[in-house]
Design brief:
7 helices; 2 domains
Length: 201
């Protein structure tokens, strides 16, 4: 049978293996929460690829009249998703017990979501304060984006305000601002948990 998406199987299985190895090596509970969010993102991608794979088969001549080909495509895709869903279930088990094992750096659901959002990709984990804190260039970027947001916030609160945000910040800049702010907040929380002086920024 023609392989419409040749990298699908290899890519998802590679991600599954990588995340399983990563999960087994992560001892700190808050990182398991972060990892759970990343695993969900992989499952979403696997589901999307399943649909694309089946649509690709149909586009290349495997229509409803070729049930064997469609069934094979479905099972092929489903097997890939099952491996990822197994990882998600494993990570979910860790998440269930997180409140009891967090230790000094207590992370609630909101902060865990912030940690996931602060990641630039699904393989990124923070090893400590030094990784989380913003460098000078990132601090300057955050301040610039913050200034633009403040200008937008000063607009009158009416029905047109939301639509005017793009005049101050592009969609990419809005996302970037959120990620930088999330990292800054997490770094502050981390430093406070270690009993260090957070200083001013």
């Amino acid at each position: 049978m023609m392989k419409i998406f040749p990298d699908f199987s290899e890519g998802v299985l590679e991600a599954s293996t990588s995340f399983r190895n990563l999960l087994s090596g992560v001892e700190t509970a808050q990182f398991k929460v972060l990892l759970f969010g990343s695993l969900k993102a992989i499952d979403d991608e696997a589901s999307k690829l399943t649909t694309e794979y089946e649509e690709g088969l149909k586009a290349n001549g495997y229509d409803q009249g070729n049930l064997d080909a469609l069934s094979s495509a479905f099972l092929y895709s489903l097997n890939q998703q099952d491996s990822v869903k197994g990882l998600i279930q494993e990570a979910n088990t860790y998440q269930e017990y997180v409140p009891n094992i967090l230790g000094p750096l207590a992370i609630d659901t909101r902060l865990a979501e912030s940690a996931v959002f602060a990641c630039d990709d699904a393989t990124e984990l923070w090893d400590g304060y030094d990784d989380l804190k913003l460098n000078e260039e990132e601090e300057s970027e955050l301040l610039r984006l913050q200034d633009q947001r403040v200008l937008w916030e000063k607009l009158p609160d009416d029905a047109t305000k939301a639509s005017q945000l793009s005049a101050f910040l592009s969609e990419t800049e809005v996302t970037r601002f959120g990620k930088l702010q999330a990292r800054k907040n997490l770094a502050t929380r981390w430093k406070e948990a270690e009993g260090l002086d957070t200083g001013t920024a």
